[in-house]
């Protein structure tokens, strides 16, 4: 892009106008909120992560999970079920169990 903004062209003006953006920016669950229209459809999951990190850095790890889920699938953010009995039966006395 000549302007160097990529998919963010017009975003600054949209945020400055307030309205839905003001509610979004003040939300305590910004990482799980739907972006104001039309930005919800215009931006990729990665671009949304950049915006959330810029606005509220403390939500970065939570929104990073959204990116992984959107790009790779929910399988990559869910922990597998833990079965202590199966782990114990697979172990031997010379190999420690590490959690």
Topology:
Layout: H1 11-16, H2 20-26, H3 39-42, H4 45-55, H5 60-72, H6 84-90
Q: What can you see in these coordinates?
A:
The chain has 99 residues and is mainly alpha-helical. 48% of the residues lie in helices and 0% in strands. It has six helices and no strands. Helix 4 runs antiparallel to helix 5. The chain starts with 10 loop residues before the first helix and ends in a 9-residue tail after the last helix. The model has no long low-confidence stretch (mean pLDDT 87).
Summarize the structure.
The chain has 99 residues and is mainly alpha-helical. 48% of the residues lie in helices and 0% in strands.
Instruction: Note the total helix count.
Output: 6
Tell me roughly what share of residues is in helical segments.
40-55%
| Percent strand | under 5%
Mean pLDDT over the residues: 87
How would you spell out the order of helices and strands?
Answer: HHHHHH
Number of strands: 0
Largest sheet features: none
What key phrases describe this protein's structure?
99 residues; mainly alpha; 6 helices; 48% helix
